Amino acid sequence: MTLWTSGDAVAATGGTSTTKWTANGVSIDTRTIKEGDLFVALKAERDGHDFVKMALEKGAAAALVTHKPDDVADDAPLLVVPDVLVALEALGQAARARTKAKVLAITGSVGKTSAKEMARTVLQRQGKTHAAEASYNNHWGVPLTLARMPQDTEFAVIEIGMSNPGEIAPLSRMTHPDVAMITTVAAAHLEAFDDITGIAREKASILDGLGNHGVAVLNADTETSAVLQNYASRREVEQVLFGQMSRSWKLEHVALSEGQTMVQADTPNGPLMFKLSTAGRHFAMNGLGILAACDAMGADPVQAAMDLGLWQPPAGRGTLETVTTDPANVGESLALLDDAFNANPTSLTAALEVLASYTPRDNVGRVVKGRRVAILGDMLELGPHEMAMHADVVKDPSVPALHLIHCAGPRMRHLYVALPNAQRGEWAETAQELAGQVSQLVDAGDVVLVKGSKGSKVSLVVDAIRKLGHPDTL
Fold it and tell me: Where does ATP bind (predicted)?
């Protein structure tokens, strides 16, 4: 199906097209480009203009550029504009304007991508739904997601993130959502803000893109909920609260057990129960928020509640897998919770609660008694109090239920020192060093959580654990 014609793209961007063309998609990466895509030559670590020739050779319909690259033919299909990113933003805004889709924008310190995928899972069973396939939530990811939106879309879900002040509002105005949801506010990217209230205000600026009849779906339980609600009041938009402190979408009960979450809630439509096929109180909160957002978008929240069980966490965000540690012995395996994509104190608390809910298996492996094992990498961008925040993890209510905690990185050293001797595992300066020791850190029967900020590279430990049952052979 045609997504963009050269005429539509020229009208949206004000650029000049060298020839007529039609595009079925939009791409910024020649490694994943598909035949018929419009290639957008963005400048990042590399200049996208260096890859225009390759994109056209792979079947791109045209390329969005500021000039014709020297290695490209004179008659190549090009859309020439003064600024490629500005033109991509214009395409996104034009795509948003020409659709009648109900649009949900999601932000939050924790859970944006998981909530986006929850929304996609339930909404796509009620209408044609558009959402980014990855965590495209920044200054180029949001317009790219919008520019890829087909005109006949019925529901769209757009994730919006930030690293610094002032980033969310422009992306929200570009998105012009009907409903905006804030999953939670936590100490993430704190080094760019004076305090968590500043983070809350930045998250609340997602409401700036709402129209006169827009709806703000807000977490009632986060400590800065009053900041969010006051911001919504000043914007004069309808507020829908979710959580234990909410009177409308109220979280009544959450039970975690062996990879599942059972949730009871009271809603404006009456009592509601739903089950998630993964464990996590934070996932329960996000699920309830998504149901409230679906209701605000005109979707059926009861059907959505039934379909939430189909959702699974994205890779690296709490996924559970079984890793065989010795293929020669039946049952020689461990349970791996891969939560290595990101971390802050709030998301770590949620992950530790999940780990504590699992029962390890005894009488397998060399240790005989199964253990709950946490392997933790540094939490980054927490600001001047980051060392104390790491040490304070020892006070987490789930820590007493854990048998062993291994740590990687100079920040996690502070937790390592604070741990009781019985729970103190190994510490290494880097995750790579710890990855080299995994055969001694975990054993069959264990339930193992690996969590840390992406920059801590604790995902190397995940990869090493996955390889335990597959020793190198010559």
Answer: 108-114
Q: What is the Cα–Cα distance from 207 to 106, expressed in whole angstroms?
A: 10
Is 109 within any annotated ligand binding site? yes
Give me the pLDDT at residue 314, please.
Answer: 79
- Whether residue 66 is annotated as binding a ligand: the answer is no
pLDDT average, residue stretch 249-267:
94
Evaluate whether 304 touches 287 at the Cβ level (below 8 Å).
no
Q: Work out the end-to-end distance of the chain between its first and last CA atoms, rounded to an integer number of angstroms.
A: 49
Question: Looking at residues 243-258, what average pLDDT do you find?
Answer: 94
Of residues 185, 222, 213, the one with CA closest to residue 109: 185
* CA nearest neighbour of 415 among 442, 382, 383, 386: 386
Q: Which tens digits make up the pLDDT trace of 33-67?
A: 999 999 999 998 899 999 999 999 999 999 999 99
Q: Residue by residue, what is the 3-state secondary structure of 216-256?
A: EEEECCCCCHHHHHHHHHHHCCEEEEEECCCCCEEEEEEEE
Categorize the per-residue pLDDT at 444 as very low, low, confident or very high, splitting at 50, 70 and 90. Answer: very high
113 annotated as belonging to a binding site for a ligand: yes
Give the model's pLDDT for residue 431: 97
Residue where a domain stops, chosen among 83, 114, 136: 83
> pTM above 0.70?
yes
Split into its structural domains, the chain has a count of: 3
Tell me if 473 is assigned to some domain.
no
- Residue 427's CATH number: 3.90.190.20
135 band by pLDDT with thresholds 50, 70 and 90: confident
Nearby residues of 52 by Cβ (< 8 Å), 6 or more positions away: 39, 41, 63, 65, 69, 72, 76, 78
Which residues does 29 contact at the CB level (< 8 Å), separation at least 6? none
The parent domain of residue 373 ranges over: 319-466
Instruction: Quickly list DSSP for 317-341.
Output: SSEEEEEES-TTSTT-EEEEEEE-S
83, 114, 148: which is the final residue of a domain? Answer: 83
Task: Reduce the DSSP state of residue 377 to 3 states and report it.
Answer: strand
35 domain residue, yes or no: yes
Pairing of strands 319-324, 333-339: antiparallel
E-strand spans in 359-403?
372-377
Does 114 show up as a binding residue in the annotation? yes
In a domain, 92, yes or no: no
108 marked as binding residue: yes
- Find out whether 112 is annotated in a ligand binding site: yes
Tell me if 209 sits within 8 A of 216, measured CB to CB: no
